[in-house]
């Protein structure tokens, strides 16, 4: 996919075998972790230049702008890249629910931690 | 890789082409997003049953227990799976710096957001 992403940024990305980096989405006002999306170079370019969080859908194999159908828009406040280039921290103003289920965040299935030194 | 991960959990995971889910690591006390790691089924199993955050290193192609060499341990408080099974939110007590650079978090490169309706 041809993209206009700044080559200096593109050179720092460390992608999955299918060309994606993980985008952690955090709510600006609360600090809550809302969801994880996936971005290829072009999705990152669109996110940075439009101020609207844009992802690559692994299931549908297409770009999607968060909120385009649901109205649950994400206005981008800031984007930070991590030290090894495989993850982004996208801070947004979230309109409505982040999760397609209607929940505030996508992380609503607790897994049992059964062992260890829990201080 | 043979694993003893609960098959009911394994059945919910949606992995990258190389068999991994993204693990977002959040600090319990502050809510800060510290880093992103990768887990295959066995790394998740070890994390849940030992209470110590354990990842799969994509660069070294091996398991690593956070803090094993640095002393910067992560004691796991909770683990939540997201709605589509491709991401985990791991809440930890972090000892020392989360990033190998010595920074508190791994997200220390701000990217320019140049466009859009920033409210």
Automatic annotation (TrEMBL), chains A, B:
One GO cellular component term noted in the UniProt record for this chain: cytoplasm
UniProt cross-references to PANTHER family, sorted A to Z: HISTIDINE BIOSYNTHESIS BIFUNCTIONAL PROTEIN (PTHR42945), PHOSPHORIBOSYL-AMP CYCLOHYDROLASE (PTHR42945:SF11)
Cofactor(s) the record lists: Mg(2+); Zn(2+)
Annotated catalysed reactions: 1-(5-phospho-beta-D-ribosyl)-ATP + H2O = 1-(5-phospho-beta-D-ribosyl)-5'-AMP + diphosphate + H(+); 1-(5-phospho-beta-D-ribosyl)-5'-AMP + H2O = 1-(5-phospho-beta-D-ribosyl)-5-[(5-phospho-beta-D-ribosylamino)methylideneamino]imidazole-4-carboxamide
Species lineage: Bacteria, Bacillati, Actinomycetota, Actinomycetes, Micromonosporales
Chain positions recorded as Mg(2+) binding sites: 82, 84, 86
HAMAP family: HisI
Domain spans labelled Phosphoribosyl-AMP cyclohydrolase: 35-108
Family assignment from sequence similarity: Belongs to the PRA-CH family. In the C-terminal section; belongs to the PRA-PH family.
Compartmental location: Cytoplasm
Coarse class of the protein's main subcellular location: cytoplasm
E.C. code: 3.5.4.19
Pathway entry: Amino-acid biosynthesis; L-histidine biosynthesis; L-histidine from 5-phospho-alpha-D-ribose 1-diphosphate: step 3/9; Amino-acid biosynthesis; L-histidine biosynthesis; L-histidine from 5-phospho-alpha-D-ribose 1-diphosphate: step 2/9
Sites where the protein binds Zn(2+): 83, 99, 106
Name the record gives this protein: Phosphoribosyl-AMP cyclohydrolase
Assembly: Homodimer.
InterPro entries tied to this protein: PRA-CH, PRib_AMP_CycHydrolase_dom, PRib_AMP_CycHydrolase_sf
Cofactor note: Binds 1 Mg(2+) ion per subunit.
Any one GO molecular function term: zinc ion binding
Function: Catalyzes the hydrolysis of the adenine ring of phosphoribosyl-AMP.
Keywords: Amino-acid biosynthesis, Cytoplasm, Histidine biosynthesis, Hydrolase, Magnesium, Metal-binding, Zinc
GO biological process, one term: L-histidine biosynthetic process
Matches recorded under Pfam families: PRA-CH (PF01502)
Record's keyword annotation contains Hydrolase: yes
């Amino acid at each position: 996919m041809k993209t206009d992403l700044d080559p200096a940024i593109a050179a720092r990305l460390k992608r999955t075998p299918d060309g994606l980096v993980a985008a952690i989405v955090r709510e600006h006002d609360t600090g809550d972790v809302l969801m994880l999306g996936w971005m290829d170079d072009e999705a990152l370019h669109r996110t940075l230049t439009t101020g609207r969080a844009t992802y690559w859908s692994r299931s549908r194999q297409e770009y999607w702008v968060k909120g385009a159908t649901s109205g649950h828009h994400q206005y981008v406040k800031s984007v930070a890249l991590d030290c090894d280039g495989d993850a982004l921290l996208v801070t947004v103003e979230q309109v409505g629910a982040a999760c397609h289920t209607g929940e505030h965040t996508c992380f609503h299935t607790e897994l049992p931690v059964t062992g260890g030194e829990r201080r």
